[in-house]
Write a structure and sequence with these properties.
By secondary structure, this protein is α+β, with helices and mostly antiparallel strands. The chain is built from 28 helices and 21 strands. A hairpin with a 7-residue loop joins strand 13 and strand 14. Helix 17 crosses helix 18. The longest helix has 44 residues. It starts with a helix and ends with a helix.
Length: 897
């Protein structure tokens, strides 16, 4: 049966007998790959749609509680039966209810919107109540924002400073310039969803009912100066880099026609995306160089090196074809996948070429050596490659955002290793027939003999002391398990992006109700003039107050020597008392972004009633802003208020939590100005940022461990919820991947002994993987967990090479012990070569250099650390387990007879 399998997997025989056809085929693949590569777009992450439908309802109701009972609840209740619904949240203020329905990833937004409209059309509401349904794709984000400032400006120490005595244009004039010259052409760019004009102050609206789709009033400052800003929002499926490049070119041309106006790039995603992608590409190119260098050192032959190295470009070009077919981008994860597999794709070719070279040196003709060598090694290289593919099958079928996030990664890895297998099994032996010569390995063999002899002595000793070897392996496994509690649990590594946000909320005036039709105190005292302003134009009053508070926060930030610019928006997301300061750091700074954030927290002034949060730029916009967001839920509003305050006080005692706040808005009497609900229950949200030494999952678990009264429940929200989902999903995926990998091995070996030996050797990698995370200070995160799955697919490679050749020798009449010792001598060299090429190929990523390295390094460290320990131990443990388990196997069979 084994002969049948070995013959079926030996496609090399066909390729060797048809060399011209083989070469022509791979030339065609190369040309198609070049064309496919030219069609791929660059992006930061895969395009994932986060469908949300918002209902904005209004009615003439006096209090928040009345509005909740008569407007919010009647609208919410039927929405829970909608197909694809994930969560429903709402905020209720007197006379107004805003309900957000979050749908599962992949739900069609248009169909979801239609279903929501149909559902609420049948709900009985108070007379004269109005509803508006707005579809929102959270993937539609601000790609680039330009600030228009009073000109001329000079550049001093990286900051803009106004030149005294220059002609100045008013903000109204700048606003008109933006509307006439910038907004129309930017709207016309492909991929633009809309263009927002910021800084225009109060927007006059004929419709007395506030609409979420109307222009929202804002005020803007850039580097301490009043400004107008133009914000370009991309469509959900649009490419950020393409849109940013088009906008940059367009604005540059327009700026030349407006000498009196300075148009400055205030905020963009594109700069970081470009830098992060270039960092990954640099790692990929260095991985190629190191892998080729390893081949040359071990094989000592230029011809053999070229044959083995050709698999790299051909595998990449073949993978580009698959990526183009599936519509993938050249984004961080797919490029990371390609960089990680560089050292892996050469493995099959190395094993094939090394085996053919060994047979040529033994006196075989090149063609016979190629036929015999590829037949010997066919089962082993096919098994090791198919197990890599097998472990990524569950990843492709993971649900939710995580599944869509890593599906391109898994398919890219699978495509690359399949193409590498095909190259190694077809083109490599064809070229070996024509290029390899007997003398190419003679000197190398002589140099390597001492290493092989030393390994034979160690292996011989290990076979005589099996229990001791098994004990050492068990201790190593337990040591790896013991390291787990020392590694923090997170979600996505914090990046040194060189930018962050400071979000703040100014206090609302402590006035329960103001009627603009009633006379104010202005007639009796000018000291109460602000009351008249608030009554006649509340948004304008609050915006000016918010921008003043922001200016006080902005001033010390601009004094920091590592800050390049600040961009402030008052009136964030339609809330006039809410603001954001986007802080951009200098490219030549010495400090990590998190260190600057901590420094800024310490120097910010304390402003009475102002809530400040220093936040990272989110990877993907979600329903939450800070990484920690916990919903405190209850049907008892007074109990909810008291319990939320207790949770806030206790959470403040947790080391590493920063900027802790509650979402509840109360008046001076402690009454709710607005009522929040989550999935049918009243809720208050506790949110917090994290210091670098506290993982998100660890923080969430600590908060959930705080005792609370009966009747109070906690629900994770936003990133916190995703973290919990990821850990659960990856646990199930890892188990399924292991089952599939062992299933593939059983199908190829056709018996359980070898499969069990390999399964028992898998834990040998745990100690190395844990040490890799511990040394670099990395977390158990979404990135490192995918590294464990990747590692799982690589661990069987050495064991398969050893067990397969041992079985072949035993079929030729060798004894068990001699077959094991001879296999060690023959397979040591290809095992060392493939292990070194894989590890060195990942070293550039593991070193953590370049922009975005924090995202790449944990995955590489898991793989490198696991491969080092598993490779060293498996050379001894695999033969020992093989003989020991076979002895047990034979005794069981004998007892049954």
């Amino acid at each position: 049966m084994k002969e049948s399998w070995r013959e079926r997997l030996n496609i090399s025989r066909i390729a060797i007998n048809a060399p011209r056809l083989t070469i022509a085929f791979w030339l065609a693949v190369a040309m198609a790959g070049i064309l496919a590569f030219s069609s791929l777009k660059y992006a930061l992450f895969p395009d994932i749609s986060f469908p949300v439908v918002i209902i904005n309802a209004q009615a003439d109701l006096a209090t928040a509680i009345t509005t909740e009972q008569q407007l919010t609840k009647p609208l919410e209740n039927p929405l829970f039966s909608l197909p694809g619904r994930r969560d429903i949240s709402s905020t209720t203020a007197p006379g107004q209810s805003v309900i957000s329905i979050f749908f599962k990833i992949g739900t069609n937004l248009d169909k979801a919107t239609a279903a929501v409209k149909q559902t609420i059309s049948q709900v009985p509401l108070p007379s004269q109540a109005t509803t508006e349904v707005i579809p929102v794709d959270l993937n539609e984000s601000a790609t680039v924002t330009y600030a228009l400032v009073l000109a001329p400006f000079g550049l001093a120490q990286g900051k803009l400073s106004q030149v005294e005595g220059s002609d100045q244009k008013t903000l109204e004039e700048l606003s008109q310039i933006a509307q006439d010259n910038l907004i129309p052409p930017l709207k016309a760019l492909p991929g633009t969803a809309k263009v927002n004009l910021l800084g225009q102050g109060t927007v006059r609206e004929d419709n007395p009912h506030k609409s979420l789709t109307r222009p929202l009033p804002t005020l803007v400052r850039f580097n301490g100066q009043e400004a107008i800003a133009v914000q370009v929002i991309k469509k959900g499926a649009a490419n950020s880099l393409d849109l940013a490049a088009q906008a940059e070119k367009l604005v540059k041309d327009i700026a030349q026609k407006l000498p009196d106006v300075k148009i400055i790039l205030a905020e963009t995603q594109a700069e970081y995306i470009r830098a992060a992608l270039q960092g990954t590409i640099d790692d990929l190119l260095l991985a190629v160089l190191l892998s080729v260098l390893v081949i040359l050192i071990f094989l000592g032959s230029f011809a053999a090196t070229v044959i083995s190295a050709l698999v790299i470009p051909l595998s990449l070009l073949g993978t580009f074809i698959i990526m183009a077919i599936y519509g993938f981008n050249l984004e961080t994860l797919t490029l990371l996948a390609l960089a990680l597999v560089i050292g892996i794709v050469v493995d099959d070719a190395i094993v094939d070429v090394e085996n053919i070279s060994r047979l040529i040196d033994a006196g075989e003709t090149p063609k016979n050596a190629a036929l015999k060598g590829t037949r010997e090694i066919g089962l082993a290289v096919t098994a090791s490659t198919l197990t890599i593919v097998a472990v990524f099958i569950p990843v492709a079928f993971m649900g939710g955002a995580v599944g869509q996030f890593f599906q391109p990664f898994g398919l890219t890895v699978s495509a690359a290793v399949i193409f590498s297998l095909l190259v190694a099994r077809t083109l490599s032996p064809v070229l070996a027939v024509y290029w390899l010569k007997p003398q190419s390995r003679a000197k190398m063999t002589k140099q390597k003999r001492p290493i092989e002899n030393a390994y034979r002595r160690l292996l011989n000793w290990s076979l005589r002391h099996r229990l001791l070897v098994i004990a050492i392996a068990l201790i190593t496994f337990l040591a790896g398990i013991a390291l787990i509690p020392f590694i923090s649990r997170g979600f996505i590594p914090r990046l040194d992006r060189g930018e962050f946000n400071l979000v703040y909320t100014s206090p609302l005036p402590k006035i329960t109700q103001i009627s603009p039709n009633k006379p104010t105190a202005k007639s009796s005292s000018d000291s109460f003039a602000w009351i008249s302003q608030l009554a006649s134009s509340p948004e304008s009053f609050l915006l000016r107050r918010t921008i003043r508070d922001g200016s006080k926060l902005e001033a010390p930030i601009l004094q920091d020597g590592e800050v390049e610019s600040t961009f402030m928006i008052a009136g964030l997301r339609g809330e006039p008392n809410r603001g954001k300061i986007h802080v951009k750091l200098k490219s030549d700074r010495k400090s990590h972004t998190s260190a600057v954030q901590q420094r800024i927290r310490q120097i910010l002034p304390t402003i009475r009633g102002v809530n400040v949060s220093v936040e990272d730029i989110p990877f993907v916009q979600t329903e939450a802003e800070k990484p920690i967001q916990i919903a405190i839920k209850s049907d008892n509003l007074p109990l909810l208020r008291d319990s939320a305050e207790k949770l806030r006080v206790e959470a403040a005692k947790i080391s590493g939590l920063k900027d802790i706040s509650l979402s509840s808005r109360l008046n001076e009497r402690g009454d709710f100005l607005a009522i929040e609900r989550l999935n049918g229950q009243q809720a208050i949200f506790l949110s917090a940022n994290l210091s670098p030494d506290l993982g998100l999952e660890d923080a969430a678990i600590k908060i959930e461990g705080i005792p609370l009264p009966e009747g109070i429940t906690l629900q994770r929200w936003g990133t916190s919820s995703q973290s919990s989902d990821v850990l659960g999903s990856f646990g199930r995926t890892l188990i399924l991947a292991t089952i599939l990998m062992l299933g593939v091995l059983w199908l190829l070996f056709r018996r359980l002994l070898e499969t069990i030996v390999i399964a028992l050797c898998l834990p040998l990698a745990i100690v190395g993987a844990m040490l890799g995370l511990l040394v670099t200070g990395s977390e158990f995160s979404m990135i490192s967990l995918i590294g464990f799955i990747f590692l799982l697919g690589l661990l069987d490679k050495n064991a398969v090479l050893l067990l397969d050749y041992t079985n072949q020798l035993r079929q030729q009449g060798w004894s068990r012990e001699e077959a094991v010792l001879e296999t060690g001598m023959i397979r040591l060299r290809p095992i060392l070569m493939t292990t070194c090429s894989t590890i060195l190929g990942m070293i550039p990523i593991a070193l953590g250099l370049g922009t975005g390295a924090e995202l790449r390094q944990p995955m590489a460290m898991v793989i490198v650390g696991g491969l080092v320990t598993s490779s060293l131990l498996s050379l001894i443990v695999v033969p020992v387990l093989y003989l020991s388990l076979e002895d047990v196997w034979n005794r069981i069979k004998a007892s049954q007879k």
